[in-house]
Structure formats: structure tokens, C-alpha cells
Specification:
By secondary structure, chain A is an alpha+beta fold. The first copy, chain A, contains 16 helices and 12 strands. In chain A, strands 1, 2, 3, 8, 9, 10, 11 and 12 form an 8-stranded antiparallel sheet that branches.
Chain lengths: 349, 349
């Protein structure tokens, strides 16, 4: 299957050349699924990967588990996180597990060196190797385990597609995004959970719903609001110091809820505008994703321009700190966003 | 400036989807510049980055410096290298510098953590930070310093575009690839040296010449042969254990000389076939580059299929070692290479 020719969204400049480029697609929609922006192929199903962690965490709150276990904002935020594995993250994950009567041995995500260089150095200095708790998905897994325990499900095999918790999550994803999910089309995520194929336009709709609660039954709207508020209250738990999602949440809550995923996926909710946003970079590069997300957020929310000044500047430096190039929105992306601004101001004026 | 629509070369599969894709262009040419394969835009100038290190090392031998300083194969190989920063690399770079009466303080490449995880861990355990010598380009810089000293040039500012050594290197690149270089189009590399804009078709021709010596004056042909032989004799010095270029050089010398560069560039010489090869992945991803290079080498040299079995298998595993997907040649790339095989067998038969 060949992807249609998605537009170039990001140019990477060096010297006098465009050295590299990133193509992709962007969808912005309201909670009814009406598209405000559709650039590139927004109908092709993609794996949202970690971008939908907050949706996968809905059972944790909706089931009553969060209340029963007395989960803090930090613990709810880390359940929605792709965390850096700093001590604050490890403590939140361990705390969440303990409140559910579980521990690190129950995690099925696998181990990897933490995203945090400081924690990696600390482990190395102590002669240690990372464990499952250092995995950037361990908070999501801990949240799922807690939900499973509260619902009376076995914590064993919670990561398998046919476990009742995963069946529940798949149904929530399907209802939230307004698409039927084909179990035969599911993939396996890096952390061993199922990942479901969903078009960008449906993800955008799902994030509009998550951000506003519109189209949700009351319990689900409350669960979504609780998770969103926790992420706003504890932005460093959702990613880590210096990372894009933490920068945005810290600087722009409650106007923007944002979450990235592997292979070039990034989603956001803009609750006051009633909108959701989903984008995918064809080649999977985070360099492309964060550039595009910065541009689109700034197009919808001028206040974002200040918080994302570095990302929008896009200067690239070499090993001696010399400025050698920059990332920039492509002419095509610029045109699409300028056209959007015109449309929105004509609609407003 | 928008790139033309280069073909998709690599599909990244997960579950039932093509999750991500990499586009790019490939040129294969002989020493006279006749194209044997031109897939995608091979006329557009690109920055070859580290792929042309062996060409940048020609003055080191051609000037007589290598003989005067008694450089070993390891030292010549590391002068052509993007090395991992293991002890063997550090020793070769330090040795090369010392023979020229210089030391690490003369290097202008800047410092970064070594590519080698083992060396990174060793530095951390010792409470140390990396120095310029750990920079993957330090061997190239050491070779340039030695050439400059032998030629009676100042070792200060050797990295600047107007230093006589860099002027000499630019001329060699221009003559080897058969293109005029526009100084206004040069960029700055990650290691602070100039990087020159050259089309893939010209790079392919340059590598055909480098591999065979055809079209070179005798001294240059000898210099190229000496550098090539050194890389064949000391393959681990050119990159490092487990890395693509080392695997290919170790397993397929003297049939293939290969060298990668940043931002998705990779070049090769196939001396017995009289051919050179140059490719660029549009988005810069090494994942795309190594997949494509493996496919193209295997298409020209069936023996490469064994040495590159893992790369051609392309299986992707998650953090728990579960098989979750694979990289594969796209249908378009497969078609181009199959068409090539037909053409070559008809020509032979």
C-alpha cells in the first residue's frame, strides 16, 4: 500500500540548501467531526501510539479506581505520560502501583534506558541497569493495572488484546474517535500493548471531545476532565523537563492539552476553541512533528508563539555551538496556515 | 525551494499497516559519469556530509604526509572514519596527531558523547565528560591537521573554508566528482568543516573514480588506493563494532567500499564493477539509508546478501523483544532494482 503524496510540511535548511524535508498530514476538527483543517491524507488510518495515553487512562477514572485508591494529580498525570524516568516519575509510578497493591514486577512494558540523561548517568554511576519502571510507558501500564485490579480483573496478561481491560479501552477509543476498530488491523506497541488503526480526522475529533467533554456521557466527561486537569497541574509528570509536551502544558494550560506519540504522531485539544488536532509525519521523525505542532498551535493560539519561541525559531547548532541551519515550516504549510487564518478572521469579522 | 517528489524507497511495517515511509533518490554511475541507475532526483545538489571523508583525506596521502609521518593502516582508516569513539579509535587519532607533532588541543571539531555506549559508560563511571577526540569526526580532523603541517600550512584555522587545505580539498572534490563547486552554496558541517553541494549523480561518479582510480592522475590514483586499502585492512576503525559500514567493509572488502553521512546520505564504490553509488533519504533518517544501501548492494553483488542478512530481514522488535514490524524495500524500489537486474542480465547474456 503506497501512501498518497502528503505535502512537505518542514524544511531543514543548512547553508544555501534545503538539506532534508519531512512530509505528513494534519487534521483539525470539532467534537462533531467537522474538519477545520485537513492538510494531506487525513483519512488514512495510522497508529496513534502514545498520543492516546489519556484516552487509554479513561477507565482508571471512570471505573472509580482513581477515587478508590486516592490517586494524586501526579499519579494520574503519569498514567497519561511518556515520562523521562526522572525520580519524580519513578516515585509517581511506584506510588500508583503501591496504592493498587502492586509493584514493578507486574509491569509488562519491558525495560529501556530512561529518556532522562541525568537518570541514565545515575544508573551507570551506581552500576545499575534500567528496569521496567524506567520505561517511558510505565505510568500508563501502572494506571491500567490499577484499573484492572479495581474492576476485579486479573492483573496478569492485562496487556493482551483480549484482556477485558484492553477490550474496554478499545471500545472507549472507538466511541471517542467515532470509528469502528478492526481488531485484525491492530499492531503491537513498543511497550507491548495493542495499538489501534485510527484516521487522523477521527483522532482530531476524539481530542476535541476529550478536551471539551462534548459528546461524552457525564461519567466519561468527568473522567476526561479529571485526567486533563491532572496533566495541567503536574506537567512535568506527563513528559519531563525540557521536553515539548511539558513545555506546552506548563506554559499554555488550560488552553492546550498536548501529547505526542512514536513514529511522528502528535495530538492536541484546544478546549476553549472546541477543537482537536492530530498530525503524523510520514517518516516518523520527532524533528518534523514538534516543528509542525508548534506552527499549528501558534496559528490557532497566538499566545503559543511566546511559549514556543525556541521551537518556532528552529535554529540548528553544531558541536561547537556554531549556527549551521534551521528547521522551518515549508511554503506549503505556511500557505495552509495563512489560508486558515484568513478563513477564521473572515468568519469572526 | 520544493524538492521534486522522490519515490518512496522504504516502508516501515507494523501490524497490518505501513506505519512510516522514507523517500529518497539513488544514483549509480561509472567513472565516466554514465548512469546505470537513476531513481528519483539525482541532479539536485545535496550535502554529502561524512560520506566523502575518504575524498577529504586524499591530501593526507597525495601530499606525502602519510609516508613522511609513517601512518599506519589504522591511522589512515580513522582519517576516513565516522568512528564510534572506542579505545581503538581514540588511540588511532591520538597516534596520528602525535606523529604530526600535534595533540587533541588542535582539533576544531567540538566534543560530543561517543557513539559507543561502552565508552560513554566508561566516561560516566570515571566522572568524565567527552572531549574533541571522542567526536566521531576527530580522525578526519587529525588527518587534515597532519596534511596541513606536512604541507607547511598553519594548523590554526584549518577548518575554515579559505584555509589553503580546505581550498585544496574543495578542488579535489570538484575534480573527482566532475562538478564545479559554488563557494556560496557551501554549508557548515556538524564538525565545523565546510560541506559542499554536489548532486548524487556526480557523487556516484566520484566514488566510481575513487574505487577504480580511473580518471585520476597517477599520484591521486595511488592515494585513493592507499586509503581504500587501509579501510579494507582496518574496517572497525572506519565506524565501529556492529555498525553498518564496518559490517560491510569487514564482510565484503575488496568488492565494496562504503561510507555513510549525516542526514541520510550513503555512498559506495564497487571497484570490480567500475561503479559508484550515492543515495540520499529525503528526511535524513539512517533507518532509511541503511535499508536502501543494503538493497542496492545486494542487487549488484549477490554475495552481499549473506553479509547483510540482518539488514535485509529488517525485523523490528519492541522493548520486550516481541517482533512488532519490519522495514522493507518499497514496491517502487523493488521494481527499480528488479528492472536493473533484468537489464544487466540481458546486457551480459
Amino acid at each position: 500500500m503506497t501512501a498518497s503524496d502528503n505535502p512537505v510540511l518542514v524544511d531543514v535548511h543548512r547553508g544555501s540548501l534545503i538539506e532534508s524535508q519531512h512530509r505528513g498530514a494534519i487534521a483539525v476538527a470539532d467534537a462533531d467531526g467537522r474538519l477545520v483543517l485537513a492538510f494531506g491524507d487525513v483519512e488514512r488510518p495510522i497508529y496513534p501510539r502514545s498520543a492516546v495515553k489519556a484516552l487509554q487512562a479513561i477507565p482508571l477514572v471512570e471505573s472509580g479506581a482513581a477515587d478508590a485508591f486516592g490517586l494524586s494529580d501526579a499519579e494520574l498525570a503519569v498514567a497519561c505520560a511518556s515520562h523521562s524516568g526522572d525520580q519524580v516519575h519513578l516515585d509517581a509510578v511506584a506510588g500508583l502501583l503501591a496504592k493498587a497493591g502492586l509493584d514493578e514486577s507486574h509491569l509488562a512494558c519491558g525495560a529501556h534506558w530512561p529518556v532522562s540523561e541525568a537518570m541514565t548517568r545515575a544508573l551507570l554511576r551506581g552500576g545499575k541497569r534500567p528496569g521496567a519502571i524506567h520505561n517511558n510507558c510505565s505510568g500508563k501500564h501502572a494506571g491500567m493495572l490499577a484499573a484492572a485490579v479495581h474492576l476485579g480483573y486479573s492483573p496478569r496478561g492485562y496487556e493482551k488484546p483480549d484482556h477485558p481491560l484492553q477490550v474496554m479501552i478499545a471500545r472507549i477509543l472507538s466511541e471517542t474517535c467515532g470509528v469502528a476498530l478492526d481488531p485484525d488491523r491492530a499492531g503491537i506497541d513498543g511497550c507491548s500493548l495493542p495499538t489501534h488503526a485510527v484516521p487522523l480526522m477521527a483522532l482530531a475529533r476524539g481530542f476535541a471531545r476529550f478536551g471539551t467533554g462534548w459528546g461524552f456521557a457525564p461519567e466519561r466527561a468527568q473522567a476526561a476532565a479529571r485526567l486533563k486537569q491532572a496533566c495541567f497541574a503536574a506537567p512535568v509528570l506527563v513528559a519531563g523537563e525540557g521536553r515539548f509536551d511539558t513545555v506546552v502544558l506548563r506554559g499554555l494550560a488550560p488552553l492546550i492539552f498536548v501529547k505526542g506519540g512514536a513514529e511522528g504522531v502528535h495530538c492536541a485539544a484546544l478546549p476553549d476553541l472546541g477543537l482537536g488536532l492530530a498530525l503524523k509525519i510520514d517518516d516518523g521523525a520527532k524533528r518534523g512533528t514538534e516543528r509542525v505542532m508548534s506552527e499549528v498551535l501558534a496559528a490557532f493560539l497566538p499566545k503559543a508563539r511566546n511559549v514556543l519561541a525556541d521551537q518556532l525559531d528552529g535554529a540548528l547548532y553544531n558541536w561547537r555551538g556554531l549556527a549551521v541551519g534551521r528547521t522551518a515550516a515549508s511554503a506549503e504549510l505556511r500557505g495552509a496556515l495563512d489560508g486558515l487564518a484568513e478563513t477564521r478572521s473572515r468568519a469572526a469579522g
